[in-house]
């Protein structure tokens, strides 16, 4: 499982956009979003680097934990 902090993820729309970005990389990935903690947990095949890049391309600033 890969965990990322996304400080600028603040609402349900943000969570939906980030989930969509992850699913475009790996449609079978399990994505858990915690808005209060600003964290995204991904259980799938994509690498941490690819996840960071995809979320950044969606307009957010993910940080590897």
Question: How would you sum up the major sheet?
Answer: 4 strands, antiparallel
Evaluate the radius of gyration: 10 Å
CATH names the topology as Alpha-Beta Plaits
The total number of structural domains is 1
Oligomer: single chain
Proportion of residues in helical segments: 25-40%
Q: For the residues shown, what is the average pLDDT?
A: 97
The counted number of beta strands is 4
The class by helix and strand makeup works out as: alpha+beta
Any guess at the CATH architecture?
A: 2-Layer Sandwich
How many helical stretches? 2
Task: Please report the distance between the alpha carbons of the first and last residues.
Answer: 11 Å
What ranges have pLDDT less than 50 throughout 5 or more consecutive residues?
Answer: none
* Beta-strand residue fraction: 15-25%
Shape: globular
Q: What is the element string, with H for helices and E for strands?
A: EHEEHE
Order of neighbouring strands in the sheet with most strands? 2-3-1-4
Task: Return the CATH class.
Answer: Alpha Beta
């Amino acid at each position: 499982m890969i965990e990322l902090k996304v400080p600028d993820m603040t609402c349900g729309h943000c969570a939906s956009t980030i989930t969509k970005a992850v699913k475009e990389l790996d449609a079978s990935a399990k994505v858990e979003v915690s808005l209060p903690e600003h964290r995204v947990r991904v259980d799938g095949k994509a690498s941490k680097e690819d996840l960071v890049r995809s979320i950044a391309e969606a307009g957010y600033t993910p940080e590897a934990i």
